[in-house]
Amino acid sequence: MNIQGFIVVFGIICLIGLVIADDPIGITRETQGISTVTHVVVYGTFTNNVEAVWVSSSQDLRNNPPLKTYSDDWIDPFSGLGETGKEKWTPERQSTMSYSEQTIADNGYTEWDKTVSLDTGDKVANQDNFRATTHFDFVSADDAFGRATYSESLMLDSTSMGSDAGSRILCPWGIGDSGFIPAYCNIVEMGSYFTGSRVSMVTTARERHISASADVPVGMDYSISLSGIGSAAAWINAHIMEGRTPSVFRDVAHGTGSNDISFWNADMGTEGFMQGVDLVYKEKTTASGIIESFSKSMSYQSGMRRF
Description:
This protein has one domain. Helix content is about 0%, strand content about 55%. It contains no helices and 13 strands. The strands form 3 sheets. Strands 1, 2, 3, 4, 5, 8, 9 and 13 form an 8-stranded mixed β-sheet that branches. A hairpin with a 4-residue loop joins strand 11 and strand 12 (about 270).
């Protein structure tokens, strides 16, 4: 009996909108770079594991939570104590990038090529802070019931109490609501999975969240292409919460002599940024059997300027 199947899956997801505007984290004075290149050809057993978690803040990670908001008091930037004549705290933003990959191939022939690069420096719109590319081929031994299992996940979690757009945007037409980039809290995950007796696959995972200005959008991409015998899946999960800037008041304009910033939400009768978006998106594609072709591409971009 001859069984043939043909499965093609292709998807492009772009989560972008008028008020979706992540503000990238700036670099520290010292930057780091990590890169690896792996090549393996083996009969028998093969394993590979990669774990990366990178947390960045525009202020002090050791003092979170909560993130700092616009302060109502004048603060000494060195002691942190309230003293008249000193400067005020600016809002804080924080991003977390996480990547994981686990592979085991047992009782078969494996060819493996993987490159990983991580760079903590400022990036422009066509560059990445993290990138991982994997080429994986496996064929089970005929008499050994061999099997390969592969899983990969990329996640980006960004949150902010807002930003002064005048000091973050180079483009004169991208200043945003009332001169501020509103608060946001966005998390996006992309990944894939395969288990089976035969596979030839290529995956690419990349992301960017470190930049000198908010003109460069935060972004992440994931793609997978494979054929084989077994079960495959690819997915994206996203929860986007974006703010808007309500009326902005400065006490100096009302003759109090200070320069305190306050945001007044007339609809709610409270101070602070308004929430303008709450978006949940989930998509998962699966295939099982003799997989002739499985391909999926996903993309996320968030910023004051997009391309």
